[in-house]
Amino acid sequence: MLLRIAFFFMMALGLIGFGTVAWISTRPPSSAKTVVVKPTTVAVLTAARAVHAGVLLKPEDIGTKLVPINDPSAAGSLHDAADARSALVGSMVRRSLSVGDILRDSDLMRPGDHGFLAAVLEPGMRAVTIAVDNTTGSAGLIWPGDRVDLILTQSIQDTSLPLGRRVAAETVLSNARVIAIDQQIIQGAAPTNSDNAQKTVTLEVTEQEAQRISVAIRLGRLSLSVRSAEKSQVAGGEPSSPQMTWASDVMPALGAVAPPATTDNIVRVFQGAGDVKEFKY
Hints:
27% strand
């Protein structure tokens, strides 16, 4: 009798244990709590190198650093983002900045701001805009603040000239500062995302240089040549010794081609029976 009671007791314990295990295995797992960690720092845009007041920012002038999110010194700062960096290129720095200084809107004058063009120009200088494409504009590698030479290439429509003298190139403006590219503040210029569309480049020039460019625009095709970043260069100015490059200088074979032979036109004037005069022209 005792053995039977013990057997039923053990069976009951086994069923209770089996049920407990089955209940635990079929119970849905408890949802894990998501812990949100709030950032304590933020990346802001800074001056990557020392820049002086009046300088136009280039991509290499813009850096970044992390600052505490509640740091009072970061008030008015610009958060680091690709579109924010792009929007700063070409902006004029109102005050001199050291390496690591935070860039703020109050320190910058953007190309679309009122009075930007007048503030960028040096005293006595003018702003003139020319149209370029990806080829004549150095494939979009020119930035505001760069210095460039302006080259005029023209075709001379005179069939009496040798072939080597029918195409010529000359530097009509040397060491001019680029102050804007594709900005709406320039009359007739509008930003575009089309790689094949014409774009505009605005140069800082003297009054006489502006007149030279106006004439050059009517004569032929203008292209830009970027100069090296030498601090000793003097801003603006005509080429010290203009050098004309002819087609025969590039392709000597054109210089060997003789011009087509011309036939003189002759006019004979008869005065009487034996008086005849010939005039050639």
